[in-house]
Amino acid sequence: MQESGKIKELTVKSALHFHENEMPCNWDVNVYRGCTHGCRYCFAQYSHEYLGTGSFFTEIYAKANVAAVLDRELSRAKWRHARINLSGVTDAYQPAEAEKKIMPDIWKVLIRHRNPVVITTKSSLILRDIDLIAELAAVTSVYVGASITILAEKLRNIMEPGAAPAEERFKVLERMREAGCVTNVMLTPVIPLINDDLQNLEGIYCRAKKARVSGLSAWPLNLKGSTKQKFFRFLDARFPELLPRYREIYKGSEVSPEYWDSIRTLKSELQRRYGIPLIQIPSTQGREDGVQLSLF
Ligand code: SF4
Fold it and tell me: With a 6 A CB cut-off, is 290 part of the ligand 1 pocket?
């Protein structure tokens, strides 16, 4: 492991990782570990704990050789061009990418192999690579999503301090659509009593409609593992008045069915009013690619 500024560099033996979850697809490539976007609700925080090192939000590892390794893996005869998710754990366009510039080489590899892809980001840095992304979108399907949760900039800055304002993310989607990508809004997570008011939710549907996105889906905040403790600590510091209600809504790691029923009704009404379908990302080759596990 090498250090470059505050970002540590790793060399990896494999780039592609298979998992059973088909949403949005079974294969992931993550070019970083850790993410300085610092979203208070980030579920990936606890994925860092096994490293036994610093915070997910401050200790960033860049996989320096990941594009070369991916190129090797996609060259294998048995690879069937399954769709790859470039944002399974961390945001590939977090601030570290401005310095490390790993993603242009990833796009070049994907273009060479004409491999379909899905990526979700909260950063406008992805626009730096729009020409490469357009080149890939000309030969295969490219799904670009933006996770957009809060329109009010002051609150957005409290909840996602390192990420771009919502309006910048909508502009990313507009440019990516023009570049030939399929674009989606992930209104996720819906955070009880913080971003679940009608004004915020409807504002996001309305702006998404204007951006002509193909799909929009919303899922509730999940507080798996140590994320619950961390999020409750954050609430205690910033929104202590919400804690009693949170203890009712979160008996475990998921929202109560009563709470989600009320949001689901609102979502259905907004979806009907704005005519935006739920996100659909067709699988490519699907589970048969599981046989390739042995290759990697
Ligand atoms: S952008 Fe995603 S990975 Fe990064 S901190 Fe936010 S939720 Fe976590």
Answer: no
Residue 90 Cβ inside 6 Å of ligand 1? The answer reads yes
pLDDT score, position 48? 63
Question: Average pLDDT in the 147-176 region?
Answer: 98
169 close to ligand 1 (CB < 6 Angstrom): no
Pairing of strands 215-220, 182-190: parallel
CA distances from 279 to 3, 146, 183, 215 (A): 39, 12, 9, 4
| CATH class of the domain defined by 2-278 | alpha beta
Q: Whose CA is nearest to atom 6 of ligand 1?
A: 39
pTM tops 0.85, yes or no? yes
Question: Per-residue confidence at 3, pLDDT binned at 50, 70, 90?
Answer: very low
Cα–Cα distance measured from residue 164 to residue 94, given in angstroms and rounded to the nearest whole number: 10
Q: Whose CA is nearest to atom 7 of ligand 1?
A: 42
Could you tell me which residues come within 8 angstroms of residue 250 by beta carbon, excluding any fewer than 6 positions away? 223, 228, 256
Cα–Cα distance, 127 to 95 (Å, whole number): 13
Evaluated on CA atoms 113, 34, 99, 95, the torsion sign reads positive
State pLDDT tens for residues 43-53. 888 766 655 55
Cβ of 180: how many Cβ atoms within 10 Å?
15
Contact 62, 31 (CB under 8 A): yes
From 39, 126, 219, mutation site for ligand 1 pocket: most ligand atoms within 8 A of C-beta = 39
Nearest ligand 1 atom to alpha carbon 89: 3
Q: For ligand 1, is residue 230 a contact (CB within 6 Å)?
A: no
